[in-house]
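dumping these here so i dont lose them again. two proteins, back to back, each one seq then structure tokens. dont judge the mess
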Amino acid sequence: MDDTQGSWTVDFYDFRRQLTCPAADEGLRAYGDIHNWARRNGARQGTPFLLAPDGTADARINLFFRVGSVASRRPRTWRRYAFSLAVWLDFLEVYGRRWDEAAAEDFDAFKHWRMTDHRNIGRVRPTSFDTDRAGLNTFYTWASQRYGVVNPVPTKSAEPAPQQWSGQGPRRDPARPAGSPRRQVKWLLRTAFEQWRDVGLRGYGFDGDRSDGWRGFNEDRDAAFVDGLYGTGLRLSEWASVLDVELPMQDVAGRFPKAWLAEACIKGGRAGREYRVPRSVLKSLAGYLDPLEGSRTEAIDRARRRGRYDQMPGLTLVTGYSRKGRSLYLLTETGRTAVSLDVIGPEERLRLFRRAEDGLEPLALWLGNDGMPKQAHGWEKTFQRANERIRKQWAAAHGTDGQECPLWARPHMARHSFALKWFTILSAVWNQQMEGFTDTERRDLREQFGDVWFQLATLLGHSSPEVTKDWYLEPFTGLQLDYILSLLDEEEQAAVDALLRKVAADSGRVLQVAHSSAFAADGGDER
């Protein structure tokens, strides 16, 4: 596809930036306060807008992100849909086809070009095209209802007739590529995860030595972030939205102190919930937050020296925090106002600041190099850079091009790995507790108190155990528990052993497990 004629561009509203209009730009100044004008038209922080190659905008396309169900989605979903739309619109532009005239054969040609056409050097894997398909189908479903546009994306019918479909289970979406399985789950055990972290984010080589010339300005931040993903089981967007005041106190007793995940930061708008932060994660966070040596303090100092916080528009000043009430006290036009953390979403949290002895500082836990709060999608790039460094280190160590490097990670793999670890632990404890019960008695106990899947769904914050079973660990349910236990590393084995000693104290039996090396298993829909 020839793209010399220009491309559709994607940008995002950022109400934190100060806009300056050139004195000569009468057309722009006629709108007055651009931020207020955009808000009146439904834009929010992070809302995408697309521009055609000639610099014009199609209001119908941009309205998609401002009204209806998509407007209530998370900014990460907006970004995925916006970039998928831009690629599709570029494709149609080359063939002189308007988006509201596209037909099913156009989508089929797009699918071929995107995945298999040898003339396209930017071909993508089936899983990536599946994201395009979902975004385009959502867009055209909305556009068909609002503007009467025909949806060119083939979709499965909600209730297929018996003569049309007689297979087992739900009918497959015809537009979904064959190489895009329903489950794309991958796990990392702790040894593999720690090697990925150390090589990708902390400057080590596969020989265990730190590389010469390594300049890890933010390695304490990056290591603490991925340690938190792996240890808490939170989604990337959830862990990225945490404020410093929401962390457990360092002097709280126990190996897994409790923390609260605010309702406004949870996928799907479900109620806020407790989660656990391992002591090892708190130790990593302490290094990042250290007032003398931590990179967070250095980033804040840089931002203050350059006046970034003082110039930030829309900043909200926080004057206090109630840990018991989980509320912030905000300085508003009406005075000091208590606001529950459960109603403060990820974007609003980026604008929360307190006035400290040395000046303003953000409440957002995770900061960029410039001292400004780091947005969730920025962590995707951190993972990409880590994977690239690992690939290069692997190539250097093995004399290859690095394409066959077996070590890599995506953010959601940490959550899958959390699920696997706790599935193993809970299964071991459950089996030990049920020793001596008949099958009928076990079934009655499951119905009364819930089984492993119910407990695991609670840890992951899923609305139903069926989501946990179907999307995270279904491929593991047929394996013997002893085999799964053998895959754990020493630290995880110790945790299982400690639990089983307590459960089996009266019987005197202790489960013995063996040590094995790092393991990754295939099984990414972010659930």
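---- next one ----
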Amino acid sequence: MISKRECERSSCVKVNGDPSNIEIINSDDTVVIPKEKGPGTGNRMNYVRLLHSVQTAINDSVSLEGCFRKVVDMVPSEIHDFSISCSRISFDGMVFQSGIFAISDSKYASDILVEDVVHGKFEVYFRQGLDDAGDLSCMGEEIDVVGCISDMLGSFAENVLVAKDLDIFRTLADTANYGVAVLDINGTVLYLNNSFAAMHGYSPEEVLGSHFLMFYDDEQVPRLKYLLDRVLADGHFKQEEVWHLRKNGSIFPVLLDCNVIFDADNVPSNLSVMMRDISELKKAEENLKRAKALEDAATCSKSEFLCNVSHELRTPLNSIIGFSEILLDGRCGDLSDVQQRYLQNVFRNGNQLLEIINDILDISMIEAGKEEMVFEKFSISPVIMEVKDSIMHSILKKGMTFSYDPDPNLPQINADKTKLKHILHNLLSNAVKFNSDGGAVNINAGTLGEMMHITIKDDGIGIPKEQLPHLYEKFYQVDGSTKRLYGGTGLGLALTKKLVSLHEGQMWVESERGKGTTVHVMLPL
């Protein structure tokens, strides 16, 4: 009988010139079957010739469909005096039957394996009259032949599927705009796509068989060796930035991804490398850094200029305000009603101008990085009450209600007290300014994790949702018309936001038109 082992390799059958000298080759030895030697030798030689014919047909096939069609027609037709009447192949949903197909009660089926997974079956049906076990027990050689053919079909199918996968891989890799390479475990280049070769100024043929180190200068070699050790230890690395060497000696920055490819025994066999040239990205980053540096320098210069101008303006303005106050107090004699009214206008507008200058000066100092912070531990409740008292005149003038329920268990906050007063003053002043007569303002302070959470809520005119993202822009006014009802420069919230940021805190606003506004401030404890 022909053992199944004798047909494990795709080249298991070989005819040396004269068909009477037929070899069955396996991995261990070669058995030579001489012509008509001993009982049954003629049948055995027919089986071997059949296997040789099947192997030749398989080797000449280029597709699974063509191969399977040839084999199912060949097996019954080649066995003239054998007991097989017809055959059938089923493989991954495809079914192929011999031209003359008559199902009998006696059959034998052998699995078609691809990478040790059953993908189909090769079935043969024996001629009628061989229905009992005794008759079938004599069919051992036929059964072995069927097993050998199913092994041949499995090997061919595996080769075809691998070839398809390789074609898909090559198609994808060759059309990619990034570099793709496959190395053996020692770093020798086995495959690279056109993009990989072109990025380095080579043709693929110039690189194949070379070591991957050819793309690195002496300074980069230690880094590559480190990355190779790392990928063998971890199985992969991602987005590693290195410098590659072109054929002309120039270098350029790339991002590398590398993965280990394991064989069927889960042993590392190859390395896949994907490479992206980031030269343009690097240039863009450098241009962005230069532009940012120029912008920072311009902002710093502008802030220093505004700081100096504001300082120069504040000095004479303080004199105007101070002397106006002296005259209004009557220290230089009585004033007529007209003089009193004019001086009050000078005094009031002078203070408004001073407030604007102070805000500009504060913002300029912060942007120039010159604002100093003096942190200290204190209770926030007295600060809130102090700020409330400073705007109580405005609250009473509009007949508004103010509510604050201090929490005696509230922990102290570590902050710059002067700047916290400024934050609260700006926010409470806005809550009063943009509220109607008889409205309400509520302030609340509590802890949220390691933060102090302060909310200031009013039931005033509110802010349209589409304008909320612009609130912190300098000189921005929700009502930007020349006929707006509410004064101000649009610096208050911009400054407040910067003061909160100096505390490494957060600030946001919730509001809808006609439904009031809630401002949230979070400051570290």
